[in-house]
Amino acid sequence: MQIIVFLTAWGYFVYSDNIEVETNVFLPLLGLAIINAFSASAISLLVVTFIKKLTTLSTVSSIISTASGFFSGIYIPIGSLPTFAQTLIKIYPGSYSASLYRRLLMNNQLSSSFKHLSNNELIDFKKQLGIGYQWQSMTSSTQEFSVLIIALLAALLIVAFKSFFENRLRKDRRL
What we know:
It is built from 7 helices and no strands. By secondary structure, the protein is mainly α. Helix 2 (26-48) runs antiparallel to helix 5 and helix 5 (93-113) runs antiparallel to helix 7.
């Protein structure tokens, strides 16, 4: 689905605004889309394992979908939010995925648009838009990718442990 949306949006931007995405980012975008899909699916699986009713699933899905967009910095740039909200965004794994997409899609444009500005001004702009996050220093793409992989593995590990212990409990009850 991400690939279809990307191709549709890309075609629209090329047609309406003559904005082109350079072809050298297609392969990294595809890889990021795959990792992002697995990571988001694993986190969703973790949430769903605790839900027992369909009506609860529907409600939780609505809440998580909205919160996910907010915590990814999609609706409002992170730099315009208060410090507490920025911290919440920084601990949500999906925000690192969004940052990686921004890095890939904006890298060349940032290099050309900000070549006359100082490095500090470029960093301030990136902080404002959520292209990397400020902890002790700005996060790198490697660190952001690591957050996605750790979130994926942690979610799958928790689901596996939960499943293992539930199966074990069922066996003990039968004996």
